[in-house]
Amino acid sequence: MMVSNMTDDQIDPPAMSLGKLAMRMFGATVAAVFFSGAAAGLFDAFGKEEQVKPAGWVIMGVFAALTLAAFWFAWVSARRYYRENGPLTPRARRATISAVVATAIGLLMGVWMSFASDAPEQPFDMAAGPLPSGVAAALIAVIVVVIAPITWFWHRNIDEHEEQSYRTGALAGLYFYSAVTPIWWLGNRGGFLPAVDGMTIYLATMAIWGAIWFRQRHL
Asked: Whole-model pTM above 0.85?
């Protein structure tokens, strides 16, 4: 009697999708911004104290370690994606590099704001705390001279599907802004809403834009 050896077909796990990579990179970026800003703010606050308790340095060290862990997670995720999906085209590589550079600059700007804040007793408050006029002017210059050209370069190198997703998200963000801003403004004039916060509306608009872009691009 002949016995045939049968081996189970091994099915390779699916390669990491671009959507999953984008979610990982977004999470790592948010974590790095938060933890690095917290560490920088605490370091600046501790520098103004005569004596810092050991627990304070431990907490700051934990935040710094978590920042490095976020960078490591992003790096490992990117390497896995490229290993499983092959190298990017030159155009896609340029777009990816420009996005990474813009993200890194934004992270450094957040850390700088945390260090330069005029409210050291609130190290986590980077959005509303006062800034020295020179620092504010320098950050504005970075946005105009550096971030804007990088954004233009990124837009020049994205593909048609990316551009369509980008435009759909932008349109949704514009509709959101066009509705929320006058509603909030009228509510404030009517006395039942607080004063309009431009940065809150901006961040909410960017969140809507990004969510629609991600859905159109990756889901």
From this structure: no
